[in-house]
Amino acid sequence: MPLVNVHLRRGTTPEYRHLVSEAIHRAMVDVLKIPEDDQFHVFHEVDPENFVIQPVVFGLPRGERAMFIQLAFNQRTAEQKTELFRAIVANLRSFAGVGEEDVLLVAFETARENWWAAGRVVNPETGYDERMTDLQGTVGSV
Predict the structure, then answer these.
(1) Lowest mean pLDDT segment, chosen from 22-36, 54-68, 78-92, 111-125
(2) H helices then E strands: how many in the chain?
(3) Which Pfam families does this chain map to (predicted)?
(4) Quick check: 136 pLDDT over 90?
């Protein structure tokens, strides 16, 4: 049950936010093997004066479409997170026209037992949703 928070400047369209959400979700399904219906995304549009970012960060210019994406999920390997970040950036470019210089990502990992939602059934052997059957390389998988 990953939770995604997307922070961006006020003024985007619902269609744009849908494309951003779909780009992130598709990457999580493909890389983390989460179920298709396991989508919990919250968008936070803030006034430009409350979205403070330098125009050049790490030597790259950042534009008005810059967004900060926070991902919360169970523990994953470093390789999975690297692959996930790459997939999100590629999907955002493809789905919503967002350049990689405008994507800032952070992942917060938490213990599997810290997640709850009605109807969710956890496989006691893996600690993940029982519908997740393709968990090669996942930390704690069998």
Answers:
(1) 111-125
(2) 2, 6
(3) Tautomerase_2
(4) no
Q: Which pair of structure tokens corresponds to residue 112?
A: 């599997």
The Cα angle at residue 107 between residues 2 and 57, in degrees rounded to 5: 140
Q: Which of 22, 63, 128 is nearest to 136 (CA)?
A: 128
* 31 residue type, one letter: V
pLDDT of residue 135: 61
d(CA 78, CA 120): 26
Q: Which helix (H) or strand (E) segment is 9 a member of?
A: strand 3-9
Q: Is the pLDDT of residue 14 over 80?
A: yes
Tokens representing 102 are 């405008």
pLDDT, position 111: 78
